[in-house]
Write a structure and sequence with these properties.
Macrophage Migration Inhibitory Factor; 174 residues; 10 strands; disordered N terminus; 4-stranded mixed β-sheet; 20% helix
Length: 174
């Protein structure tokens, strides 16, 4: 059920503002705001409205890598390339992506200590079986290129987080 409120947008006081919970494209945004700028009756038409849809703040995905690769062998280019490529794959601006690399971990996989990675990609929405295949290829490629980790030694957990379980800037994503 929409709730009518008041607001001035870019110096214009709209006729109506309606807010309601709306999932859009699989994202878990709680509220979208529909701003009715004006209502008029053009010739040969019933009433029509000029509308403005205002989205809530975007979500912030987190990509984390735990690896036994030494810190001295982690190039800065991995951070910038992972940020750029994940932003594109997740359809998010780069400014929303957090990349956290944790090197020098004591790790063994399949009975040896060859380079290995245990990763996680967490996001509010945009996590699905189809997209996870794409993300896996992207992440395995990045870690092989920059850290020398073979794709068969790169394990990735994907987590679709409910917005109410993510906090930022003194608030949560509702």
């Amino acid at each position: 059920m929409p709730i009518q409120t008041s607001l001035t947008v870019a110096g214009i006081t709209p006729s109506y503002i309606l807010r309601w919970p709306t999932p859009v494209n699989g994202n878990l945004y709680k509220n979208f705001t529909l701003v009715v700028i004006s209502v008029s009756a053009p010739p040969q038409s019933s009433r029509f409205a000029k509308l403005l849809l205002v989205a809530p703040p975007p979500i912030m995905p987190l990509f984390m890598v735990n690896t036994n690769v030494a810190k001295s062998k982690v190039p800065a280019a991995l951070f910038s390339e992972a940020t750029r490529d994940l932003a594109e794959a997740l359809n998010k601006p780069e400014s929303y992506i957090t990349v956290h690399i944790i090197p020098d971990q004591m790790m063994m996989c399949a009975g040896n200590t060859d380079p290995v990675a245990y990763c996680s990609l967490k996001s509010i929405g945009r996590i699905s079986p189809e997209k996870n295949k794409e993300y896996t290829k992207l992440i395995c490629g990045l870690l092989n290129k920059h850290l020398g980790i073979s794709p068969e030694r790169c394990f990735i957990l994907f987590t679709d987080l409910p917005g109410v379980n993510v906090g930022l800037n003194n608030d949560i994503f509702e």
